[in-house]
Amino acid sequence: MHDSGDPLGDLVKLLVRLPGVGEKSARRIAFHMLSADRDYAQTLGEALATLGERVRRCASCGNYTARELCALCADPRRAGDVLCVVARPADADAIERARVFGGRYHVLHALLDPLGGVGPAEFPLVPLMERIAREGIREVILATPPTVEGEATSLYLAEALRSAGVSTSRIASGVPHGGDLEFVDPITLGRALEGRRSL
Amino acid sequence: MHDSGDPLGDLVKLLVRLPGVGEKSARRIAFHMLSADRDYAQTLGEALATLGERVRRCASCGNYTARELCALCADPRRAGDVLCVVARPADADAIERARVFGGRYHVLHALLDPLGGVGPAEFPLVPLMERIAREGIREVILATPPTVEGEATSLYLAEALRSAGVSTSRIASGVPHGGDLEFVDPITLGRALEGRRSL
User: Fold this and answer.
1) Does A187 reach chain B within 8 Å, measured CB to CB?
2) Does position A195 have pLDDT exceeding 60, yes or no?
3) Gap between the Cα atoms of A41 and B1, Å rounded
4) Does residue B102 sit at the A interface (CB-CB below 8 Å)?
5) B39 pLDDT exceeds 60?
6) What's the average model confidence in pLDDT over A84-98?
7) Is residue A2 over pLDDT 70?
8) Which of A18, A38, A97 is the best residue to mutate to test the B interface, defined by the most B CB atoms within 10 Å of its own CB?
9) Residue A144's closest CA among A130, A161, A131?
10) A53-67, A112-126, B14-28, B172-186: which has the minimum mean pLDDT?
11) How far apart, in Å, do the first and last CA atoms of chain A sit?
12) pLDDT-based confidence at residue A69 (cuts at 50, 70, 90)
């Protein structure tokens, strides 16, 4: 980094680029780094600087890992015939923390978004279909986000998977747990009604 | 850092130790670092790791600086006979951003806290009094925080400064701007009434 003579100000400028960190938090963090023990700042700094070198994509599912295969793909206790397809590693992480899924993941690192430059030609369909054939996957759960691009991706994948004879489902969209209906947006309310289940 | 084989998890553990960063934000930041361009992660990491080497305390006021004297102490346009005494560099930074003070600061890096191991013997009174004599300071504004330790420090300093014949004042404590009285704590309300000014 160019030495501006203002290391604290430089750090604040870098920190505000982090998600969820505003000007105030950035200043608080920067001052904290100087009052906290120096080992911590150095360890955190090195962890950040070398993260990209130490993390790669799992050769099987595309999730982040430090090894050739991620911990889930290497775990023989995970069901090998069910895949949960997600857009990003953070999504797989969120589902994993909910402890509701015992199969493996497939991380697309992309969503179908023709206006954003990801049309069917750019979309990584082939690696997924090859994996399904290679690993004898029988069931796929589509857990792309409930956004325009996520829904488009889900529809596109559902069609390809149907042709391949794979049982396919889409995660439910509706009112979140603990959510106050008054503050839920109309599209979500519409989906909650549409997806109602008889009791 | 010891290589646990889980660089992302390690980073999350380091990030949650930052002020204002919980488990969720830490995960969000960690995943962001991998999807953002790698130069950014490296630059931020190096800025953090080397911060302690590049920042020292101003020889005059004790604030953080990259040089022998901080920018404010080196600025001849700042009033040289008025000092604002604060506990921490972040406090001087906050007052500076409010653009309400044209003098210089004195950063204690401590508060009087006998139970916490900072009694009069440990408290850095001498450097302040020496600076006041050396620089011919005529007025001191005590801007230590409105906490038990901050008030104790303020009283202690006020006595020492009175003996030295220096005009001394304490910043006002009261209901913050935009604050709803309903949600203001009783001590603050008491101070707001006590410190009322005739109109």
Assistant:
1) no
2) yes
3) 12
4) no
5) yes
6) 92
7) no
8) A18
9) A161
10) B172-186
11) 61
12) very high
**Structure tokens given for A143:** 């857990």
Q: What is the ipTM of this complex?
A: 0.78
Task: Find the closest chain B residue to A67 by CA distance.
Answer: B5
* Residue A166 main-chain phi, psi, to 5 deg: -100, 135
Residue B118's beta-bridge partner residues?
Answer: B113
- Alpha helix positions (H), A55-123: 89-98
CB-CB contact of A63 with B26 (8 Å): no
Average pLDDT over residues A13-32: 94
Structure confidence by residue, pLDDT tens digits, B58-67: 999 999 999 9
d(CA A186, CA A174): 10
Q: B5 CB near a chain A CB, below 8 Å?
A: yes
At B2 the pLDDT is 55
Q: Where residue A3 falls among pLDDT bands split at 50, 70, 90?
A: low
Is any Cβ of chain A less than 8 angstroms from the Cβ of B46?
yes
Is the pLDDT at B199 greater than 80, yes or no? no
Domains with residue ranges and CATH for chain B: 7-54 (1.10.8.420), 78-170 (3.40.1360.10)
Q: What is the DSSP string of chain B?
A: ----S-HHHHHHHHHTTSTT--HHHHHHHHHHHHHS-HHHHHHHHHHHHTHHHH-EE-TTT--EESSSS-TTTT-TTS-SSEEEEESSHHHHHHHHHHT---SEEEE-S---BGGGTB-TTTS-HHHHHHHHHHHT--EEEE---SSHHHHHHHHHHHHHHHHTT-EEEE---SPPTT--GGGS-HHHHHHHHHT----
Q: Nearest 5°: phi and psi at A72?
A: -75, -40
A17 confidence band (pLDDT: 50, 70, 90): very high
Q: Residue B35's Cα: distance from chain center in Å?
A: 34
Contact call for B41 and A51, based on CB within 8 A = yes
CB contact under 8 A, B52 and A31: no
- The residue behind tokens 């149907």 is A162
Q: Is the pLDDT of residue B3 over 70?
A: no
Cβ atoms of A193 and A174 closer than 8 Å: no
Query: A167 to chain B, minimum CA–CA distance in Å?
Result: 31
- DSSP letter assigned to residue A164: T
Phi, psi of B113 (to 5 degrees): -155, 75
Report how far residue A103's alpha carbon sits from residue A85's, in angstroms, rounded to the nearest whole number. Answer: 11
